[in-house]
Predict the 3D structure of the following.
Amino acid sequence: EVQLVESGGGLVQPGRSLRLSCTASGFTFGDYAMSWFRQAPGKGLEWVGFIRSKAYGGTIEYAASVKGRFTISRDDSKSIAYLQMNSLKIEDTAVYYCARGRLNLDYWGQGTLVTVSS
Amino acid sequence: DVVMTQSPLSLPVTLGQPASISCRSSQSLVYSDGNTYLNWFQQRPGHSPRRLIYKVSNRDSGVPDRFSGSGSGTDFTLKISRVEAEDVGVYYCMQGTHWPFTFGPGTKVDIK
């Protein structure tokens, strides 16, 4: 059974950093791109970015709203995708989801809440 | 960026009756490989999004056949043939043809 579990969310002050993890199981993690999304409270879905599989160069794309502040990486040996978030802003407050694939997006995690507040 | 619009934004429906959601894109979603990367997602209250339809009209495994997707170019539709109580939630269209990939604002479906 495919499972994605996000962790690492919490309350953080503006300007600080946080790293989220997406731990995968039930499939060959290294064969898939992985994507990150977020959803601000009561709002719609926003694509944060994705990382391709090593077979496709492991390249990464980011939304303009997070480019230069957020970094996506992956550890295929541990089946984990990461979202390193630096210089956090109040408007980064959201539930963050990871999903399998770049276009597939057929499996999603349960999400982890990040609250940026002083 | 490609702007995705949906209508209506709120859709009260009677159980057993059909429902239809429109999604329009500001640019054609036909990719250079000939595919059209338009997905539909359902998000039930308190849950993660779930993909229902991919590439316009392909239903995901486990998705009831009362859900169907259609359309082409810039104009797409999600239909529910007979709404059931478990269909309550927000439905999003999403385009994966042009980066950055973008979502529609969502259509909230609830029961009258």
In short: The two ends of chain B are 36 Å apart (CA to CA). Chain B is about 0% helix and 50% strand. The CA atoms of residues 15 and 106 of chain B lie 20 Å apart. Chain B has a mean pLDDT of 96.
